[in-house]
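Input record (Table S2, row 324):
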Amino acid sequence: MDNLLKVIDLHCDTFDRLAYDYETGWNKTGAHRPQTLKHNDKALNLEEMKDFRWLQCFAIFIPERFQNQEALDFYLRVKDRYDLEFSDFSSEIQQIRSISELDSVWESGKAASFLTIENGTVLNAQISTIDILQEHGVKMLTLTWNGKNAIGSGNDTTDGLTTFGREAIKALEEANIIIDLSHLNEHGFDDAFEVMDKPMVASHSNLRAVCDHPRNLQDEQVLRLIDMGGIFGLNFCRDFISTKHADPDFDDISYHIDHAIKLGAEDHLCLGTDYDGAKVPSFLSAGSKLQGFYELLENRFGQEISAKLFYKNAQRFFNEYEAS
Ligand SMILES: [Zn+2]
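Output record (zinc ion complex):
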């Protein structure tokens, strides 16, 4: 394979941005749509990704204004857009269902994608919905967003998992859909550990010891995640990187990496950029900036740790998960 930089990103919200606008509703679709996966004004597009070997977990995020059947309908509509983009640009990107497909997709010169979902409202409080997701090749589901849903409670609330939430975790594991604990509150996190048999992910969460924000992980949570063979993704959201700097710089991010290494998470820290879902630092404004970010990392942390963070840890995790 060529020497292009490899990237595995556990989370972005680009498809919501392509499909839906909070002010004006559904965006134009069809052949003459102004925004495509290839050409758009978002942080991620195929132009930004083409100089890398890239595996993107493209999340479909369900806003909290949509509940029950409306939440499932929202997902299905954005999923239509995902299918349209992937069919129109099939020579440049491909959805994969198993990590074992990755190398051949990369060798063919294409980017790869796992389809993921952010917010368990998508289940419409019915276990049977998982069959639909499995059919779509959904790889990972973030159980909650910031508020409450039928599964549990996000970081704006304090309740734990519901009875349905516990059943859902079991059923998702059986369907080989990875559980993502980002956004979940601490009570729910503890409950999830009681129920889960397989390793889990916090796809886009930083470290609270470095930046005290409820969306970030406590040291103890990181240690439990490591212990079960899980991974977590470094989130570029400004508010989750630094409480001191409005536009964080490389040093601010590197404190999270330092602390993760101190906790023994060198083999568990990945990328979870949150592109197109968060306000990110200027020096990381779009996908193409990951080249410069990698160079800074390599200078500070060396080649081995940088490669682990960029793709090796995530690739190993998906392999281990699929073998479990
Ligand atoms: Zn999120």
